[in-house]
Amino acid sequence: MKSRLLLHICCAPDEAFVIQSLQAAFELSCWFCNPNIQPENEYRKRLEEASRVAACYAVPFNAEPYNPESWHGATAGYHHTPEGGERCFHCFLLRFRSTAHYCKKIEWPAFTSVMSISPHKRIEMLDKAGTIAAREYNVEYKPFNFKKNDGFKKSIILSNELGLYRQDYCGCILSRKERDNRKSRIT
Ligand code: SF4
């Protein structure tokens, strides 16, 4: 019998690659909890696309109700830090606490996150947040590194093949402003 592993999902492209990578070894279930994503229409777009991918691979999919205020509360005091800094640590912790809580609720033993595929996400920061959340809920965090072996490049190829929506900013309103600033420096 396969071990059960809950996947924290942030977006469809990362989700598709990770499901393909793990489905032979684990029984999977998806948990979409991303109160960081703003504005709401962007959140709905990513949620729908992630739900569609899970259905394609016949993996159960559930989502936390949208609550952007929880992200503001968790990251208050860190908004001045750049992407990759303290605000991201608290953003990860918020989302992993929700995932660990859901993992405990459905009585599955372990969770991980598809976010480690992104070159913008620091593995040691993800693992620290995952370990803290897992300990709080008495479940296991599995520290995968999906960037290894060209995982990110392969995920881009796969998402193009599947015609998936790929966002061009991480999710929060601050990362959207950072994206806008990058664009205005180029033009
Ligand atoms: S940049 Fe991404 S990980 Fe960092 S706080 Fe914003 S949404 Fe969260």
Structure overview:
- Strands 3-2-1-4-5 form a five-stranded parallel sheet, with helices on both faces.
- The chain is globular.
- The protein has a single domain (3-186), classed as Rossmann fold.
- 52% of the residues lie in helices and 12% in strands.
- The model has no long low-confidence stretch (mean pLDDT 96).
- It has helices at 12-22, 40-56, 68-75, 86-105, 123-137, 151-162, 173-186; strands at 3-9, 26-32, 61-63, 110-113, 140-141.
- The relative contact order is 0.19.
- Helix 1 packs parallel to helix 2, helix 1 (12-22) packs across helix 6 and helix 3 packs across helix 4.
- The longest helix is centred in the middle third of the chain and has 20 residues, at 86-105.
- Helix 1 (12-22) links the parallel strand 1 and strand 2.
- The chain is an alpha/beta fold.
- Residues 36, 75, 83, 87-88, 91, 170-172, 174-175 line the site of iron/sulfur cluster.
Question: Short description, anyone?
Answer:
The chain is an alpha/beta fold and 187 residues long. Helices cover 52% and strands 12% of the residues.
